[in-house]
Design brief:
Distance between the termini of chain B: 91 Å
Strand order of the largest sheet of chain A: 3-4-5-6
Structural class of chain A: alpha+beta
Helix content of chain B: 10-25%
Low-confidence stretches of chain B: 33-40, 263-288
Strand content of chain B: 25-35%
Number of domains of chain A: 2
Order of helices and strands of chain A: HEEHEEHHEEH
Helix content of chain A: 40-55%
Strand content of chain A: 15-25%
Mean pLDDT of chain A: 86
CATH class of the largest domain in chain B: Alpha Beta
Distance between the termini of chain A: 90 Å
Number of strands of chain B: 31
Mean pLDDT of chain B: 83
Shape of chain B: elongated
Oligomer: heterodimer
């Protein structure tokens, strides 16, 4: 019986020490996770080596307040989220041209596109996209609509889109268009028909 | 061998009874200490340059503040651990560097070469130095050579001569007006609750004027209570009627008064004025029946300028002018209209919706301007229509959905009036904030230049035409929009 008592004391002592180490481990893990989150940087998209293929773009036009459907030929990656990102970068390239019908801020880029489930895409744009976007109800709506419809046109499984800026939720794009909500491609499609 | 202890032995049972709870308590204490250190309070610091918050760590029940976090927004600061010593060097902008030295676990320190005894022990964590909260005023006074004022229970620190005292006076005319005056512009968030309107000051160093609770002996605006806690200040205005707040004097004055009752039944056009009045129209003493109140929300304001129409013409200014003209035009049609913003102040989007819903508006009109496109765009909310009833409780994010049919009716009427005046126009839907949160018929108007000259967007003739079109459009369908009981 003496041995059992001693073992029990030893076990209790080990449990107490173990719990202490566990608490220390938790503390360090919380600090490490916080640091990792703050230092996390997204890798650049790998360049695609595939053959050029047609990409459908919905390009906004500020002059008549409409979206024009067009196709361009671009080398696309294989992976779905990378393809979505490449399609949006192609759209942004159109907007960044000097003679763009719908200029957006210099250095605007898409950092990542996350496909959350079959139908939902989270677009993470860089700060320049929102900070330097021309301010206006219609101008901002056209940008949001063109992003949503371009994604849906090139991957019909994407039916719902949310836009983040620099990994963070933002209240509006440039003071007007709501960026806190999810946009349904079908709803936006109806808007475009109304515009035309 | 004779056992010295047995489980049945009373001493062993006592030992086990003590050891087990001790082990569990030790773990819980260690875990709590870990979690508590991570989820600390915040100290709000008000300085002449900026307002900022720094986290506080709770160490053995005493709140501690990091010196680097405290000084970083005020200048250049370096902290260096040297064994048990922590050396700090701070250089204010355009000033000379000052140095201080602290000792881990001790209350002895040296600031600018002079010995100073902290009211608690200095602490180091992850190479950073922390002083007890109640040592902060004296340490900073020595380092910055400025007077400090710490409100420890409210978690607020005031550096230099920044505290703002306010004054209140109640004008007992009809309707009564509570005038709250500040020495500098303020931008509180405003929340309307039954019987109370709360102004929350998060960034402004507003402090008590000496009397925290004031009774007004008025049947409508009964009292006001000031309080500060958790790094902010609050002013509660108690009332027996819904209240609205107007900003005046560049944001230095807040005028609080009851939401106006219905206008006289026979619309009588008053003499035209250069600008609409900034305050509530005078009206009968007590609202008794339903009334039709239009809230006009000129977008943006303050540092949030909106679109830059030209390098010298900002959206926030154009829409404020348009809003004042629209208020005048609506009043000319016998429709009570309030400006949500009547000066150059920033109001948060949720706050705009809160104020509108709190005022139980019959119609909400938000005004915007852009330098792209041409003419006038009239927007209703981009929300799927719903069959939900217009009850008292609606989902915040989709409150507007229940009013889309009425919103469309009035937007269509406004577009028809724009057409009558031969102004290029289009009726669209848009995901515009805070329109989705408005529990009343609502639409937005975005004006673009009428022709090739961008500057013409601000021409008085153009703004007059737009304001007249909107007011006429609203007046034409007023009978189709429900009046609202105040």
């Amino acid at each position: 019986m003496t041995r059992r008592i001693l073992i029990m004391f030893a076990v209790l002592a080990l449990v107490a020490v173990g719990l202490g180490f566990y608490a220390l481990h938790l503390k360090r893990k919380v600090a490490r996770d916080a640091q990792t989150a703050s230092e996390q940087q997204l890798a650049l998209t790998p360049q695609s080596n595939g053959p050029p293929e047609p990409v459908t773009l919905y390009v906004a036009d500020d002059n008549d307040g409409t979206l024009h459907k067009t196709q361009v030929s671009v080398a696309m990656p294989v992976e779905r989220s990378e393809r979505a990102r490449a399609a949006l970068r192609t759209l942004f390239t159109q907007y960044l041209k000097t003679a763009s019908t719908h200029p957006i801020g210099k250095d605007s880029d898409v950092r990542q596109v996350f496909l959350m489930d079959e139908g939902t895409a989270i677009v993470d744009a860089d700060s320049a996209f929102a900070d330097a976007h021309p301010s206006g109800v219609l101008a901002e709506e056209l940008t949001v609509a063109s992003v949503v419809l371009t994604l849906n046109a090139n991957d019909s499984k994407i039916t719902r889109v949310k836009i983040l800026v620099n990994g963070q939720e933002r209240e509006t794009l440039a003071g007007h268009a709501d960026l806190k909500r999810f946009y349904e491609a079908s709803n936006i499609g109806q808007v475009v028909k109304d515009m035309q | 061998m004779t056992p010295r202890f047995a489980l049945g032995d009373k001493r062993v049972r006592v030992w086990l009874g003590v050891m087990l709870p001790v082990a569990v308590l030790a773990f819980l204490f260690a875990y709590r200490a870990t979690v508590h250190a991570q989820s600390a309070d915040q100290l709000t610091v008000y300085s002449p340059q900026t307002t900022y918050s720094v986290p506080m760590l709770n160490m053995q029940g005493i709140p501690y503040v990091g010196l680097i976090e405290l000084l970083e927004p005020l200048g250049s600061v370096e902290g260096r651990v040297d064994g048990k010593k922590y050396k700090l060097r701070f250089t204010p902008p355009g000033g000379h560097a000052v140095e201080a030295q602290f000792n881990e676990g001790k209350d002895k320190s040296k600031i600018l070469g002079e010995n100073y005894k902290l009211p608690g022990n200095f602490a180091q964590q992850n190479g950073r130095g922390y002083v007890p909260l109640n040592a902060v005023p004296e340490v900073l006074t020595k380092l910055l050579a400025k007077p400090m004022q710490l409100h420890p229970s409210a978690r607020r620190l005031f550096i230099g001569d920044v505290p703002m005292r306010f004054s209140m006076s109640l004008d007992k005319s009809t309707p009564p007006k509570l005038v709250v005056s500040f020495p500098a512009p303020v931008n509180p968030s405003i929340a309307n609750e039954p019987g109370r309107t709360r102004f929350t000051f998060r960034r402004e160093p507003v402090i008590s004027s000496g009397q925290d609770s004031v009774n007004f002996s008025d049947s409508a605006i009964t009292s006001a209570v000031f309080a500060e806690h958790d790094g902010l200040a609050e002013l509660d205005v108690m009332a027996t009627e819904p209240l609205m707040a107007n900003f005046a004097d560049g944001g230095k004055t807040i005028i609080v008064s009851p939401v106006p009752p219905p206008p006289p039944p026979t619309p009588a056009a008053p003499a035209p004025q250069a600008q609409a009045p900034a305050q509530a129209p005078t009206a009968p003493a007590k609202p008794t029946g339903p009334r039709f109140l239009v809230i006009i929300d000129p977008g943006h304001g303050g540092a949030e300028t909106g679109a830059m129409i030209t390098p010298t013409l900002l959206e926030k200014d154009v829409v404020l002018t348009l809003g004042r003209k629209l208020q005048h035009e609506l009043q000319a049609h016998g429709i009570a209209a309030w400006l949500l913003r009547n000066s150059d102040v920033a109001i948060a989007l949720d706050q705009r919706a809160n104020a509108t819903n709190g005022a139980r508006a019959a119609l909400y009109i938000t005004l915007h301007a852009a330098n792209t496109g041409r003419g006038v765009h009239v927007f209703t909310s981009l929300l799927p229509p719903t069959t939900a009833e217009r009850t008292s409780f609606l989902p915040w994010d989709t409150a507007q959905a229940a009013f889309l049919d009425l919103s469309g009716t009035v937007a269509g009427s406004v577009a028809a009036e724009l057409e009558n005046r031969k102004l290029p126009n289009a009726t669209l839907v848009a995901p515009l904030r805070p329109m989705n949160n408005i529990a009343a018929p609502a639409f937005a108007v975005e004006i673009a230049p009428p022709g090739d000259q961008v500057e013409d967007i601000a021409s008085p003739q153009y703004l007059d035409q737009v304001a007249q079109s909107i007011a006429a459009g609203v007046a034409a369908v007023r009978s189709k929009l429900p009046e609202v009981r105040p």
